[in-house]
Amino acid sequence: MANIHYFTFTIAILALASSVAYASDPDPLQDFCVALDESKAGFVNGNFCKNPLLVTADDFFYDGLRNAGNTSTPVGSVVTPAFVANLPGINTLGISVSRIDFAPNGLNAPHSHPRASEVLTCLEGTLYAGFISTNPQHRLFAKILHEGDLFVFPRGLIHFQLNLGKTKARAMASFGSQNPGIITIASTMFGSNPPVPTEVLAKAFQVEKWVIDHIEKQFQPENIYDEL
Q1: Residue 141 belongs to what H/E stretch?
Q2: Cα distance between residue 147 and residue 152, in whole Å
Q3: Strand, coil or helix: what is 63?
Q4: Could you report the per-residue pLDDT of 175-184, keeping only the tens digit for each?
Q5: Which of 116, 115, 96, 93 is nearest to 28 (CA)?
Q6: Cis preceding-peptide flag for 136 (omega within 30 of 0)
Q7: Coil vs helix vs strand at 205
Q8: Under DSSP, is residue 45 helix (H, G, I), strand (E, B) or coil?
Q9: How far is the C-alpha of 188 from the C-alpha of 79, rounded, in Å?
Q10: Contacts of 108 (CB under 8 A, 6+ apart)
Q11: pTM higher than 0.85, yes or no?
Q12: Is 99 helix (H, G, I), strand (E, B) or coil?
Protein backbone atom coordinates (compact mmCIF):
# COMPACT_ATOMS: atom_id res chain seq x y z
CA MET A 1 0.00 0.00 0.00
CA ALA A 2 2.85 2.36 0.85
CA ASN A 3 4.41 1.71 -2.56
CA ILE A 4 1.12 2.59 -4.29
CA HIS A 5 0.90 5.89 -2.40
CA TYR A 6 4.54 6.66 -3.24
CA PHE A 7 3.92 5.86 -6.91
CA THR A 8 0.81 8.08 -6.99
CA PHE A 9 2.67 10.91 -5.28
CA THR A 10 5.56 10.62 -7.73
CA ILE A 11 3.25 10.73 -10.74
CA ALA A 12 1.48 13.81 -9.33
CA ILE A 13 4.79 15.62 -8.79
CA LEU A 14 5.98 14.77 -12.30
CA ALA A 15 2.69 15.99 -13.79
CA LEU A 16 2.93 19.25 -11.85
CA ALA A 17 6.53 19.75 -12.87
CA SER A 18 5.64 19.09 -16.49
CA SER A 19 2.78 21.61 -16.46
CA VAL A 20 5.04 24.27 -14.97
CA ALA A 21 7.85 23.53 -17.39
CA TYR A 22 5.62 24.01 -20.44
CA ALA A 23 3.61 26.98 -19.16
CA SER A 24 5.73 29.53 -21.04
CA ASP A 25 8.94 29.94 -23.01
CA PRO A 26 12.03 28.23 -21.51
CA ASP A 27 13.89 30.17 -18.84
CA PRO A 28 17.06 31.96 -20.02
CA LEU A 29 20.41 30.58 -18.89
CA GLN A 30 22.18 33.96 -19.03
CA ASP A 31 21.43 37.66 -18.50
CA PHE A 32 20.24 38.02 -22.09
CA CYS A 33 20.43 36.28 -25.45
CA VAL A 34 19.94 38.90 -28.17
CA ALA A 35 18.58 37.17 -31.27
CA LEU A 36 20.97 36.74 -34.15
CA ASP A 37 19.77 36.09 -37.69
CA GLU A 38 21.63 32.91 -38.57
CA SER A 39 18.92 31.19 -40.59
CA LYS A 40 21.48 29.61 -42.92
CA ALA A 41 22.98 27.73 -40.00
CA GLY A 42 19.85 25.63 -39.50
CA PHE A 43 16.70 25.71 -37.41
CA VAL A 44 16.55 26.02 -33.64
CA ASN A 45 13.68 26.37 -31.18
CA GLY A 46 14.18 30.12 -30.78
CA ASN A 47 17.13 32.12 -32.07
CA PHE A 48 20.89 31.98 -31.90
CA CYS A 49 22.50 34.37 -29.44
CA LYS A 50 24.52 37.40 -30.38
CA ASN A 51 27.96 37.69 -28.83
CA PRO A 52 27.30 39.49 -25.49
CA LEU A 53 30.29 41.75 -26.10
CA LEU A 54 28.59 43.06 -29.25
CA VAL A 55 25.19 43.72 -27.63
CA THR A 56 24.08 47.35 -27.40
CA ALA A 57 21.08 49.21 -25.98
CA ASP A 58 19.59 49.31 -29.47
CA ASP A 59 19.04 45.56 -29.28
CA PHE A 60 16.49 46.19 -26.52
CA PHE A 61 14.86 49.21 -28.16
CA TYR A 62 12.06 49.49 -30.74
CA ASP A 63 10.20 52.62 -31.83
CA GLY A 64 7.79 50.92 -34.22
CA LEU A 65 4.81 51.33 -31.90
CA ARG A 66 4.94 55.14 -31.74
CA ASN A 67 2.67 55.79 -34.69
CA ALA A 68 -0.78 54.48 -35.55
CA GLY A 69 -0.98 51.77 -38.18
CA ASN A 70 -3.03 51.98 -41.35
CA THR A 71 -6.53 50.73 -40.52
CA SER A 72 -7.68 50.76 -44.16
CA THR A 73 -8.18 47.00 -44.14
CA PRO A 74 -11.31 44.92 -44.81
CA VAL A 75 -11.93 44.58 -41.07
CA GLY A 76 -10.84 48.09 -40.08
CA SER A 77 -7.91 47.24 -37.82
CA VAL A 78 -4.17 46.67 -37.99
CA VAL A 79 -1.74 44.97 -35.62
CA THR A 80 1.83 46.24 -35.24
CA PRO A 81 3.96 43.62 -33.47
CA ALA A 82 7.09 43.94 -31.38
CA PHE A 83 8.18 40.31 -31.52
CA VAL A 84 11.66 38.83 -31.49
CA ALA A 85 11.97 39.41 -35.25
CA ASN A 86 12.05 43.20 -34.80
CA LEU A 87 13.05 43.41 -31.13
CA PRO A 88 15.90 40.89 -30.80
CA GLY A 89 16.59 41.72 -27.16
CA ILE A 90 13.48 39.81 -26.01
CA ASN A 91 14.89 36.51 -27.25
CA THR A 92 14.54 33.89 -24.44
CA LEU A 93 12.75 36.40 -22.16
CA GLY A 94 9.29 34.97 -22.86
CA ILE A 95 7.60 38.31 -23.59
CA SER A 96 6.39 40.39 -26.54
CA VAL A 97 3.84 43.12 -27.27
CA SER A 98 1.67 44.42 -30.10
CA ARG A 99 -0.11 47.67 -30.81
CA ILE A 100 -3.61 47.36 -32.25
CA ASP A 101 -5.26 50.28 -34.03
CA PHE A 102 -8.97 50.31 -34.85
CA ALA A 103 -10.96 52.42 -37.27
CA PRO A 104 -14.51 53.30 -36.16
CA ASN A 105 -16.38 50.00 -35.85
CA GLY A 106 -13.13 48.19 -36.68
CA LEU A 107 -12.62 44.54 -35.74
CA ASN A 108 -9.58 42.54 -34.73
CA ALA A 109 -11.01 39.36 -36.25
CA PRO A 110 -11.37 36.13 -34.23
CA HIS A 111 -8.00 34.46 -33.84
CA SER A 112 -5.88 32.53 -31.38
CA HIS A 113 -2.28 32.43 -30.18
CA PRO A 114 -1.01 28.85 -29.88
CA ARG A 115 2.04 29.72 -27.82
CA ALA A 116 0.94 32.45 -25.41
CA SER A 117 -1.72 33.93 -23.20
CA GLU A 118 -2.46 37.61 -23.78
CA VAL A 119 -3.24 40.65 -21.65
CA LEU A 120 -5.02 43.36 -23.64
CA THR A 121 -5.08 46.96 -22.36
CA CYS A 122 -7.47 49.48 -23.88
CA LEU A 123 -5.59 52.76 -24.38
CA GLU A 124 -8.16 54.74 -26.32
CA GLY A 125 -11.82 54.32 -27.26
CA THR A 126 -14.31 51.63 -26.26
CA LEU A 127 -13.75 47.98 -27.16
CA TYR A 128 -15.92 44.88 -26.93
CA ALA A 129 -13.44 42.09 -26.17
CA GLY A 130 -14.11 38.42 -25.64
CA PHE A 131 -12.92 34.84 -25.91
CA ILE A 132 -14.64 31.48 -26.35
CA SER A 133 -13.96 28.36 -24.30
CA THR A 134 -13.28 24.93 -25.80
CA ASN A 135 -15.69 22.08 -26.59
CA PRO A 136 -18.33 21.28 -25.62
CA GLN A 137 -19.50 24.41 -23.74
CA HIS A 138 -18.25 27.09 -26.19
CA ARG A 139 -18.89 29.74 -23.55
CA LEU A 140 -18.38 33.37 -24.54
CA PHE A 141 -16.57 35.50 -21.95
CA ALA A 142 -16.75 39.15 -22.97
CA LYS A 143 -16.57 42.66 -21.51
CA ILE A 144 -16.78 46.25 -22.72
CA LEU A 145 -13.41 47.90 -22.16
CA HIS A 146 -12.85 51.59 -21.60
CA GLU A 147 -9.57 53.48 -21.48
CA GLY A 148 -7.29 51.88 -18.89
CA ASP A 149 -9.25 48.60 -18.68
CA LEU A 150 -7.60 45.28 -19.43
CA PHE A 151 -8.80 41.80 -20.34
CA VAL A 152 -7.03 38.44 -20.35
CA PHE A 153 -7.19 35.90 -23.18
CA PRO A 154 -6.04 32.41 -22.15
CA ARG A 155 -3.48 30.69 -24.33
CA GLY A 156 -4.84 29.05 -27.46
CA LEU A 157 -8.46 30.21 -27.10
CA ILE A 158 -10.25 32.07 -29.89
CA HIS A 159 -10.69 35.76 -29.09
CA PHE A 160 -11.49 39.11 -30.73
CA GLN A 161 -11.94 42.84 -30.18
CA LEU A 162 -14.51 45.18 -31.73
CA ASN A 163 -14.41 48.97 -31.64
CA LEU A 164 -17.85 50.04 -30.42
CA GLY A 165 -17.21 53.73 -30.95
CA LYS A 166 -17.61 56.09 -33.88
CA THR A 167 -14.03 57.25 -33.41
CA LYS A 168 -10.71 55.42 -33.58
CA ALA A 169 -9.55 53.11 -30.79
CA ARG A 170 -6.19 51.78 -29.68
CA ALA A 171 -4.99 48.89 -27.52
CA MET A 172 -1.76 47.26 -26.41
CA ALA A 173 -1.44 43.47 -26.21
CA SER A 174 1.18 41.78 -24.03
CA PHE A 175 2.11 38.13 -24.57
CA GLY A 176 3.85 35.44 -22.53
CA SER A 177 6.07 34.42 -25.43
CA GLN A 178 8.64 36.05 -27.67
CA ASN A 179 6.74 34.57 -30.62
CA PRO A 180 3.10 33.85 -29.67
CA GLY A 181 2.01 32.89 -33.18
CA ILE A 182 -1.38 33.72 -34.64
CA ILE A 183 -4.14 31.69 -36.25
CA THR A 184 -6.78 33.97 -37.79
CA ILE A 185 -9.83 31.75 -38.07
CA ALA A 186 -11.42 33.04 -41.28
CA SER A 187 -8.28 33.43 -43.37
CA THR A 188 -6.88 30.14 -42.10
CA MET A 189 -9.96 28.17 -43.07
CA PHE A 190 -10.81 29.96 -46.31
CA GLY A 191 -7.40 31.16 -47.48
CA SER A 192 -5.13 28.19 -46.86
CA ASN A 193 -2.51 27.09 -49.39
CA PRO A 194 -3.44 24.72 -50.90
CA PRO A 195 -7.16 25.31 -50.26
CA VAL A 196 -9.16 23.13 -47.91
CA PRO A 197 -11.55 21.06 -50.09
CA THR A 198 -14.89 22.78 -50.55
CA GLU A 199 -16.67 19.60 -49.50
CA VAL A 200 -14.92 19.69 -46.13
CA LEU A 201 -15.82 23.32 -45.43
CA ALA A 202 -19.40 23.02 -46.70
CA LYS A 203 -20.07 20.07 -44.44
CA ALA A 204 -18.28 21.60 -41.45
CA PHE A 205 -20.21 24.89 -41.69
CA GLN A 206 -23.45 23.23 -42.85
CA VAL A 207 -23.88 25.44 -45.93
CA GLU A 208 -24.07 24.98 -49.69
CA LYS A 209 -20.84 24.76 -51.67
CA TRP A 210 -21.51 28.04 -53.48
CA VAL A 211 -21.41 29.84 -50.12
CA ILE A 212 -17.93 28.46 -49.48
CA ASP A 213 -16.82 29.48 -52.97
CA HIS A 214 -18.04 33.02 -52.35
CA ILE A 215 -16.25 33.28 -49.00
CA GLU A 216 -13.01 31.85 -50.38
CA LYS A 217 -12.92 34.57 -53.04
CA GLN A 218 -12.70 37.15 -50.25
CA PHE A 219 -9.46 35.57 -49.05
CA GLN A 220 -7.63 35.30 -52.34
CA PRO A 221 -4.22 37.06 -52.32
CA GLU A 222 -5.49 40.22 -54.00
CA ASN A 223 -8.31 40.60 -51.46
CA ILE A 224 -6.66 39.85 -48.12
CA TYR A 225 -4.69 42.18 -45.89
CA ASP A 226 -1.36 41.61 -44.17
CA GLU A 227 -1.54 39.71 -40.89
CA LEU A 228 0.98 38.64 -38.29
Answers
A1: strand 140-145
A2: 15
A3: coil
A4: 999 999 999 9
A5: 93
A6: yes
A7: helix
A8: coil
A9: 17
A10: 75, 77, 79, 100, 102, 160, 161, 162
A11: no
A12: strand
